[in-house]
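Q: what sequence does this backbone want?
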């Protein structure tokens, strides 16, 4: 009896060992063949919630952000060069003021808004959030994120009826203003994809965050038409948290 059971048991153990070994080999093959993770494939960077001083924020703008914008000025992508040139012109002629925020403003990286007191328009970068990204992201991905953010805000200033027709000065109802804002956002995201994100993707798709890559793919699916109701709806339901 025992002679019959023992070999059977041994056989079971061997089989278990075989399964275990096969599993180890299988996992090893999976790991070896796994695609190398690029920094841009990290879903998102968590908040650090740090607070910085005015001096720190100004230094960050001067030493980190503006040099990236200026370096892209020399970039070979003509559509980006034109946008940055126009932004510089607006700053020189005092149509806009570039500033930096010391605290978090939601998850947004930058915002453009009129300041009624001096009749100026402010383009403000969010220093703490940008610092989070800079500390956790591949340098090329970060540089492109700053470029996309800056160009997006500049495109608002140059093309969004809220600024070009000074709709913010008109006393429109909240509903009407919201509709203008949504259509403006759909338009500016469309232009950002056409003029900035698609050319950068064509250059090196690994240096663009998944959020922007996905938006570009969806925009393409909707015929690269910012007036397409499906695109407007997508913008409405997927408002970017990082850019305004
Ligand atoms: Zn926007």
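A:
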């Amino acid at each position: 009896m025992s002679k019959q059971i023992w070999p059977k048991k041994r056989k079971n153990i061997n089989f278990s060992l075989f399964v275990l070994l096969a599993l180890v080999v299988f996992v090893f093959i999976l790991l070896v063949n796994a695609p190398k993770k690029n920094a841009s494939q990290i879903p998102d960077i968590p908040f650090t919630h740090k607070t910085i001083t005015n001096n720190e924020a100004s230094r960050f703008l001067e030493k980190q952000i503006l040099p990236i914008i200026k370096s892209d000025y020399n970039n070979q992508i003509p559509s980006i060069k034109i946008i940055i040139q126009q932004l510089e012109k607006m700053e020189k002629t005092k149509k806009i003021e570039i500033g930096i925020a010391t605290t978090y403003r939601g998850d947004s990286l930058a915002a453009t808004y009129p300041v009624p007191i001096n009749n100026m328009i402010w383009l403000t970068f969010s220093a703490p959030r940008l610092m989070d990204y800079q500390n956790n992201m591949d340098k090329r991905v970060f540089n492109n994120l700053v470029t996309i953010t800056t160009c997006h805000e500049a495109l608002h200033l140059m093309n969004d009826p809220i600024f070009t027709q000074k709709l913010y000065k008109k006393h429109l109802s909240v509903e009407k203003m919201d509709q203008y804002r949504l259509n403006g956002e759909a338009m500016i995201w469309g232009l950002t994809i056409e003029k900035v994100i698609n050319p950068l993707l064509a250059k090196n798709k690994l240096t663009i965050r998944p959020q922007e890559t996905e938006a570009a793919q969806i925009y393409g699916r909707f015929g690269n038409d910012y007036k397409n109701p499906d695109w407007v709806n997508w913008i409405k339901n997927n408002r970017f948290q990082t850019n305004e």
